[in-house]
Design brief:
The complex is a heterotrimer.
Chain A: H1 2-28, E1 32-38, H2 41-54, E2 59-64, H3 67-76, E3 85-88, H4 91-99, E4 119-120, E5 124-126, E6 130-137, H5 150-159, H6 161-164, E7 168-171, H7 177-189, H8 193-202, E8 206-208, H9 211-220, E9 225-230, H10 231-240, E10 244-247, E11 253-256, E12 259-262, H11 269-280, H12 282-292, H13 307-313, E13 318-320, H14 333-347, H15 349-352
Parallel strand pairs in A: 1-2, 1-3, 7-8, 7-9, 11-13
Antiparallel strand pairs in A: 3-12, 4-5, 5-12, 6-9, 6-10, 6-11
Helix pairs in contact in A: 1-3, 2-12, 5-8, 8-14, 11-12
Chain B: H1 8-55, E1 58-61, E2 64-67, H2 71-77, E3 85-90, E4 96-99, E5 116-122, E6 125-137, E7 142-152, H3 154-201, H4 220-267, H5 271-307, E8 311-314, H6 315-329, E9 336-341, E10 347-350, H7 352-369, E11 375-383, E12 387-393, H8 404-408, H9 424-434, E13 438-443, E14 449-456
Parallel strand pairs in B: 9-11
Antiparallel strand pairs in B: 1-2, 3-4, 3-7, 5-6, 6-7, 8-10, 11-12, 12-14, 13-14
Chain C: E1 3-6, H1 10-22, E2 27-30, H2 33-42, E3 47-51, H3 59-68, E4 75-79, H4 85-92, E5 97-100, H5 105-123, E6 126-129, E7 132-135, E8 141-143, E9 146-147, H6 152-163, E10 168-169, H7 171-178, H8 187-200, E11 206-212, E12 215-220
Parallel strand pairs in C: 1-2, 1-3, 3-4, 4-5
Antiparallel strand pairs in C: 6-7, 7-8, 8-9, 10-12, 11-12
The chains are: A alpha/beta, B alpha+beta, C alpha/beta.
Amino acid sequence: MNLLLQRLALIMALIPHAMLSHAEEATDQPSSLVIFSATDTSAMQPIIDAFKHISPAIKIHYHEFQTNELFNAIQQLPEDQLPDLVISSAMDLQIKLVNDGYAQPFTDPVTETLPHWANWRNEAFGFTYEPVVMVYNKPAFQGIPLPNTHEKLALAIRSNNDFFMNRIGTYDIRLSGVGYLFASQDEINSSISSRLKENLGRVVTNLHCCSSNIIEETASGKLVFGYNVIGSYAIKYAQTDPTIGIIFPEDYTLVMSRVAFITRQARHAENARSFLRYLLSLEGQQVIADKSGLIALHPNVKGPLTYSHLQRDYPLRFKPIPLGPALMVYLDHLKQRRFINEWNNAILYDVFVP
Amino acid sequence: MTKAVYSLQQHLITRTVLLMIIVFSVLSAGVWDYASRAADLSYNRLLNSASLSIIERISVQESQIDLDLPYAALSMLELAPDDKVYYEVIDHTGQHLTGYRKTPSPVDYQPHSDPQFFTAKYKGEVVSWVVQSKLLIAPAANGWVVIKLGQTRNARNELSGEIFFSSLATLSGILLLTTLLVWLGVRRALQPLSIISENLKNRSPNDLRPLNTPAIKEVVPLVDAINSYQQQLLHNLDTMKVFIADASHQIRSSLGGIQGQLDVTLQASDTEEIRSRLINIRQQHKKLTRLTNQLLAHALVTHRSDSIEPRLISLNALVEALLTETVRDQAHTQIDFSYTAKTDDIRIPGDKVSLKEALKNLLENAVRYGPDINQIDITLSPCDGNLVEIIIDDSGPGIPGHQRRQAIQRFSRLSSDVSGSGLGLAIVETVIQAHQGTLKLERSPSGGLRVLIRLPGAPL
Amino acid sequence: MRILLIEDNEALADATQEYFRQIGHPLDWTVSVEMAERTLSWDDFDMLILDINLPGRSGYQLLQSLRQKGRTIPVLILTARAEIDDRVSALDLGADDYLVKPVDFRELAARCRALLRRERGAASNTMVCGNLIFNLATHQITVNNQAVELRLRERQLLELFLKNLDRVLTKEDIANKLYTFDEANTPNAIEQTLTRLRKKLSESSLHIKTIRGLGYLGHIDD
């Protein structure tokens, strides 16, 4: 935790200066659009390109952040340096920002296709549908039954300690906002989450900053199992690497959505609305499905990386994380301290007490 | 035509609509109040449950106050799906413990375990708050921990709006229906009037049948009144017909007489005969003149009785002037006049011209029908009941009791006196009636005729 | 003694002129107010007999303009209007008397005489009242050219009546005029004087009528 804060403080000290030049540049041009995003540029680039194609007049200034960096930047930047649009996969942090009054409403017919859980107050909008999955190394699991529920995973770890020892990876929730979100949602949704945590600790689970690391290491065989990784990355990876297997837990599969909102202080609100409208539109969503590697939310979008495809192929219990103030519970710093302590105690126990 | 200055129907309906608007406004205010309170009540309960669930999770651990914020607390508030949520926990020393900072407190808040609700702005929005406290009794932390939980008011406003507008819709429906019913009722109630007016409008002027009475109790008196008025008009019409017949008979007879006399005179050659015929013609002519004058006078007083506003007039002055004129005209006769006024200044409301005409006729009658040596007495006196009495006595032959009624009728002449027009007393009666007075014929102390008139005096 | 008749009805005017000629008072005749004004401007008349309903300007307008010029010439109005109000307004406008058509010529002549008498009496010393002649200067009184002897009070009373013909005189009026303050002025005394006067003038045209309760009225019946 302290480590995290120190890192953030360091970054924050740098950001205002870095942003200043961009902000001024943006102010000078009414056709600008400033986006702060905590989503890989590579995922967002196709969408930005497609948008540029239909609205060539709008100059997009895209800045990539880590989720926590982004959260802090928004809270600490002076108002005139705030971006027009904020995009992040950290749903809880986005909700906190909206609750704190950083967002402005966006009412548009395009939002009507959104499921209820993906729209809060017409201010925060989820625009992807990304299941939280488990990945495994297919060769390693040859002849071994796949743990296709959370409970089965816990049992599998327990009964096959040696197999999993040091070969299972998940998010380090102290570093990753998304990881923290997934862990807290596990606790909310599952009664066995602490047992699972204890078992993960017992086999000295590797902790990672990002989904891609876990997937890559699982593919390489360094790990045999990855827990709670972002499904879209896994599916995309699996398309090229057949060693990666994906499990959509049958008891419940959390679904994450990247969240965008237009800032209340937006200086190019009209441009931001255009972009958001495009992002949520059928065309934009098709671009997401086809090119970004993320999974489109729009029910009418065609292709493998789409909500409709997932629903057809995995008629499972998808459990989208709803946008709403309840997401702020685990941001309460006492709650956070308590939760991370418990997580530490469970996951890291065996590291310190072998 | 009558000016349509006042529509009962419009009046009633306007009043009703106004009343409805007032009722609507009052009820709307009431419903609004109720809706806000109902919405507040519902969401305050929610807020209170959430704050209770939070307060339960406050504990003291290792000399530190800890809060395990329950997920349920905020997720239950998501029942108001579009509302922001703020909370703050303040420890026993008054320091911020967790949650948002600088949240508002009610004025003079005294920590208490009962929840207290209030509304205050926070982050630029109106927020409904609950504040509740928990007393910690522990060596490390002794005192009140305060939890404040707030929620924006979208859902409340939506709910109260929903209650308000759905109630209002019902209310409007009821009021519109009521107005409609009143309108129909008023129309229905006034319908007999239009039936009657239609009935009257479509009637030919020669249709003298009474109106049919609709079977509505309230309308019967009106129809009866119209019918009785019609009967009166018909009666007057009859009277008028008889009058015209009588008058034309009289006038034509006189004209015929004169013409005959003139024809005969033209044939005559003897100067004496011509002269005697001319005297005859002159006599006839005089009679016709008088008849014409009386007819015109009668028409005049009849017309004036309908159209002249009464004014206050001095009866004494009127009678004295009239008497002077009469005495002058009768100076060469053996008729004595006397005048008695019990009071100097008797005033009555009336039409001077008509009254003078009436009294003049009475004096003329007394002169005409009386003997050569005649005594005519006029007495003016106020009498009981704010009435004024005018008595004209003569010492003529009088009128026998059984003929007195007839004497007042038009063209009735009791004697065959040639100069009487038969209109004198009719004129008098018309004038007296127009003045709401009474006319009586009696026997005078000297055995002649007494004409007794009573007229209402000046209003006191 | 000249009378001007202003009347647009030719038959009536003709008859009136003839009647007045027969009784020895020929009168002049015009048919309109305009003509009457012209005639009046170069000729003197002792009185006017004025019809109201005239072509052009009405009789009222002539009367009004005469009175506005301050001319006191006696005017007798003839009216045929149905409105009896004519009489009232005629007198109000300064007419001296009125008659409603059709008029009895004897009545018309009598009214004319009365008006002229009133006018003349004020101007000369001799009052001619039918068969009664009263010389105010010499105090000589004749009835049918026969001298009548009257006592002072009787003569005074006679003069009072002759100067107030056709008007009601109350006993108070008479007492105030005839008796000084300290003289015995009982009503009885007046009554006795009057009785004597009536007896002495019983052959004359003067009638003095008693209206009990009101007073006395003198009228010349010629």
